[in-house]
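User: What would this chain look like folded?
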Amino acid sequence: MNHLTPATLGLTDAGVPYSAAFDDVYHSADGGLGQARHVFMAGNGLPAAWQGRQHYTIVETGFGQGLNFLATWQAWRMDAARCQRLHFVSVEQFPFTRDDLALLHARYPELAAVSAELCAHWPDLTQGVHRIWLDEGRVSLTLLLGDAQTLLPQLQAVADAIYLDGFSPAKNPELWCLPIYKALWRLAHAGTTLATYTVAGDVRRGLTEAGFAVERVDGFGGKRQMLQGRVARAARREPAHQGERHALVIGAGLAGCSVAERLAARGWQVTMLEAAAEIASASSGNAAGLMHAYYSRDDNLQARLTRAGCALTRRHLAVLAGASHTVAHDAGGILQLAKTDAQAALMREIAERGNWPALRYLDADAASELAGTALARGGWWFADGLTIAPPSLCRANLSRHAERINLRTACHVEALRQHEGGWQALAADGSILACAPVLVLANATAAAQLLPQPMLPLQDARRVATRVDAATLTAPRVALAGDGYVTAALEGVRVIGAADYDGDLAAAEASNLVELAALAPSLAPPAVVASRACARPASPDRLPLIGQLAITPPPEQPVHQLYHLPRLTGAYAVLGLGARGLSYSTLAGEIIAAQLDGEPLPLESKLIDAIDPGRFLLRQRRGAQPG
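Assistant: Here's the prediction, encoded as structure tokens.
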């Protein structure tokens, strides 16, 4: 369940933001911006430290009102020699609401531009990792909302600088402790720096024990001293991709187009090969699909993944629209109806106890009123649910950075060959179609035929989606989901589905109409435009396969964790998205691009592990090992 508690806005008599819960102020009485610039920026050698770099990553404890981030972002914007991309990662257990942030930032008119952009993209306050793109995608803010001792050990990033902030050690000892310092050291490299406003003895000793070398230097304002530090001994880590930034992507559906866009946004050159004559020709070819998060009583892996994926897709649509690449979609919400009375009771419990900002439970009467037609039961109302045209999203992704993406359709890859320069895609006659140092498989179940060595247990579930004339289906007024579904109207059609397909298209179409009648019994049958069958590639555990491909280790090599598995050099996959391509594809592209460039990942490590393509190989190997 989501038990994140927003911060309560308070001010001292001197006008300094104050937390009654911690009985402490958010920054020095001498000024929050001055503290941010002197302690945290200058304490880490900024802006000089990021100059000339491709990207630079800062990890912060305690986002608070965001002054450290805004001051850093503003300085980055004003620096002509700045790094190409700035990544800022911050953990916060008690975040402010968007309205309170705006009130706090209004005290700093010099930050008006960056504050307005941050507040416009401020996420729903739910636990977990939230990735936000700012400044035309050149700045990323990764917010870890929740307990630092839980989330920091699950962060996958390489920190160039650390802002050790938060309420004072005496007021908030849980943030100033050895486990936190060790979690930060794990993120460091040999050149990582650190700065904090406190010189408390326990803090100095803890940082030293964790692997940092710290010293006292002149403090800010009325505080005589502060701490600067750097890594005394660095952890060993695998380097990010160091070669030519060129990727070969196989498949041009939602998965492949999202990967191509996320890589091209970072300056990569991408060669895409698609076997069909057009993009989005398989499961990504339906005229419309539904996108909403999944919720569970225990907030399980699928719930957390879909929540993160849907949030990122919504932000991505806004980014595309801002760049004049419009995606056909409807933001009118989705109503998911309970199938039984018992499920209705569970849905009510989850919605009411979970405190989810975008989820409500509606009883049958309220749901019927919203839908404009009689419904047998109530269910979940996803206020942020979307109907999206997948082909439109694919086209927008490819057009945003078209100069860096070379798309070749009607180009069937018969085989793949690894060579010393990377990967080659071969035609049926053995000729080389394309080559690149990095390979990304995004071609559904066909991936297992191209690379049989990694264990890719994917199966196609064949389904039929039926387009109906929207003019003949004016109700329900919103998209519905249940045993079947009906989308909102896009470009004059609505889509219903998705019946099993056994080769009889007419029977599947009739089944879709029966399911629509079961969702909303009072509706007259709509006029059918056409039906199409497609395959939804899914994995045995119903989670996608996203990340670097693993290969079978030698029999004598013990394998107990995912990091024990050998990996196929330069080979990645985005596979098995199933019925959630709209929810997962943008997130998948961001993960692959971040892994290749050594950027902070947009998910906790538990979720990254849950979608690792090597997990099935690990399970097989564990089952074959004693103990």
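The first helix runs from residue 32 to 41. If you want, I can go into more detail on any region.
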